[in-house]
């Protein structure tokens, strides 16, 4: 097989592996991974994908379809570097070696502390191993999982809805509704895309939120974020959160980095911060807001109830700076999407590794 033909065959197999990966569960501890086994002359022999924690990984799923000696001399094309550790299942790198695979092509390195290193193990066993094929496409597909694995915490989105002058409620505390139905619908679409949604206990006591993702008539959408509450005060008996489809997760919020690491350990890769100002400000001050969603209504309210409280800025030179990523018109309202300038917002979870 010529070099050009092999490259084209590998790319086609990788795209098929990515299609297979999409069949896996969108949420959970493990990434969605797909694998295609090719014969020495480039014919697809078997396919596999990971179906969730505790089930065979994609490589093993594909190998099992070939029988004891069916994979000898073949090429395994897989979206993520074969794992190198024993968890609920054995290491995929060793399974590929035992099966007699001659060559492995993968897209993205595994960033896990314990699971990384499979490529080195394969090369040490004399297996030709190539990395980086269609890496950009696979990186985009595994975006939240890779972020959580690399940073040891979920990707954090902080959201608020306010008037033009930054107020989230009137002086008497009333806040429904500052923004219109189009903006509220957009919020629910973004809720359903997140693994978890969080508020502080102050918001629980003041608003009794359900923290569910709903459509315009109030019906629950199919995918629901896990509800999370930060703070020491108790959630009242009979609170709307008790009727959420998922069990409530509670954290004191005394150590956000540790709390977020625990969420990542539980398979939470994206966290949607809904409020209130105290919790939003804590994440902003800690440099833990990876994205801001600010829904602005064309209104002025005035008064003390601002969207953000103290974030540790005492002089203009310390201002937390963001770049506009998007501006979206939603009915009468405007959605501002902003992301931090990296140098001005170091990630606390990576400071020890820097």
Automatic annotation (TrEMBL):
Function, in words: Converts 2,5-diamino-6-(ribosylamino)-4(3h)-pyrimidinone 5'-phosphate into 5-amino-6-(ribosylamino)-2,4(1h,3h)-pyrimidinedione 5'-phosphate.
Cofactor note: Binds 1 zinc ion.
Reaction(s) catalysed (UniProt annotation): 2,5-diamino-6-hydroxy-4-(5-phosphoribosylamino)-pyrimidine + H2O + H(+) = 5-amino-6-(5-phospho-D-ribosylamino)uracil + NH4(+); 5-amino-6-(5-phospho-D-ribitylamino)uracil + NADP(+) = 5-amino-6-(5-phospho-D-ribosylamino)uracil + NADPH + H(+)
PANTHER family: 2,5-DIAMINO-6-RIBOSYLAMINO-4(3H)-PYRIMIDINONE 5'-PHOSPHATE REDUCTASE, DIHYDROFOLATE REDUCTASE FAMILY PROTEIN (AFU_ORTHOLOGUE AFUA_8G06820)
Keyword Iron-sulfur in annotation: no
Gene name tied to this protein: ribD
An MF annotation (GO) of this entry: diaminohydroxyphosphoribosylaminopyrimidine deaminase activity
Superkingdom of source: Bacteria
UniProt family annotation: In the C-terminal section; belongs to the HTP reductase family.
UniProt protein name: Riboflavin biosynthesis protein RibD
Pathways involved: Cofactor biosynthesis; riboflavin biosynthesis; 5-amino-6-(D-ribitylamino)uracil from GTP: step 2/4; Cofactor biosynthesis; riboflavin biosynthesis; 5-amino-6-(D-ribitylamino)uracil from GTP: step 3/4
